[in-house]
From TrEMBL:
GO terms for molecular function: 4-hydroxy-tetrahydrodipicolinate synthase activity. Keywords: Lyase, Schiff base. Belongs to the DapA family. This is Dihydrodipicolinate synthetase. It comes from the Bacteria. It holds the Pfam family DHDPS. The active site is at residues 126, 154.
Length: 286
């Protein structure tokens, strides 16, 4: 499966644009296998509780949905969990980060296990150290994978050694990568698919890469991954600012980042020609 972490549109003044949010989801959903709301590229940490609820209230996904949960305590997580449950979505949960040094492995087990024990939605672990700066130790992952309400893991680190560990442990949960430049490597180490920012813009070639790998066409998959690598690498460098700029360029309602983040990315001049080339080949959504 290929799932995009949808950006959350704000207007030029930084106000949540729920109409654009709904329109964006409906424009992208036919091209992908599911939707992730409020992931790292969804600026979930920039939203108030009321805004999170309002953004989800306008959504009517027809395919599997996930909601990012990036809280610090179980009490906060319980609120976000209820929002996701009303949408019938799974939750993608990052580790607490602000007081991470005081948490330790036992604290992580209490946190993720506590959310799963609430029983409101299926829990997926989310390792994204570039954003959280918080670890998710491999032994903790192996222990949490035994929980009956924890069904998956997204690893955006790009560290293939971690993917190899997951495969070696036969964890029994769904494994997804969030790192487009190493997508094929992750598949080779047992990933089932990708939850990729690039799939907001150009899901077709990444779906093709997944199909080639599953069909055993390794050489063709390697050639396509090499062709896609600059696109994924540059988008990772530019993050949600570049993603929104690219969506606007394609005529999609991606909106603007919330201040103080800029409307334009310094990576754009290098990324634009790649995006235009993908558009000419019919690979983009817009």
């Amino acid at each position: 499966m290929i799932i995009p972490p949808l950006p959350t549109p704000f207007d030029v003044n930084g106000h949540l644009d729920t109409a654009a949010f709904r329109e964006l989801a409906q424009a992208i959903e036919p091209h992908v296998d599911g939707l992730l709301f409020y992931g790292s590229n969804g600026e979930g940490v920039h939203l108030t509780r009321e805004e999170r609820a309002a953004g989800l209230a306008v959504q009517t996904p027809q395919k599997p949905a996930m909601v990012g949960l990036m809280e610090e305590t179980l009490a906060q997580a319980a609120i976000a969990l209820e929002e996701a449950a009303r949408l019938g979505a799974k939750v993608l949960v990052t580790p607490p980060r602000y007081y991470e040094a005081n948490l330790g492995p036992d604290g992580l087990l209490r946190y993720f296990g506590g959310i799963a024990d609430m029983g409101r939605a299926e829990v997926w672990l989310y390792h994204v150290p570039a954003n959280t700066k918080a670890p998710l130790p491999l032994p903790v992952v192996a222990e949490l994978a035994r929980h009956p309400r924890i069904g998956g893991l997204k690893d955006s680190s790009g560290e293939l050694a971690r993917m190899a560990f997951y495969a070696s442990q036969n964890l029994g949960i769904q494994l997804y990568t969030g790192h487009a430049p190493t997508f094929l490597g992750a598949l080779a180490h047992g990933a089932h698919g990708g939850i990729l920012a690039v799939s907001n813009l150009a899901p077709k070639p990444y779906k093709k890469l997944l199909e080639l790998w599953r069909a055993g066409q390794v050489a063709e998959a390697q050639a396509l991954q090499a062709e896609l690598e600059p696109f994924g690498r540059m988008l990772a460098q530019g993050g949600f600012v570049l993603l929104k700029q690219a969506l606007r360029h394609l005529g999609l309602p991606g909106g603007y980042p919330r201040p103080p983040y800029p409307a334009e990315s310094p990576v754009w001049p290098s990324f634009k020609p790649l995006l235009e080339a993908f558009k000419e080949r019919g690979w983009t959504v817009g």
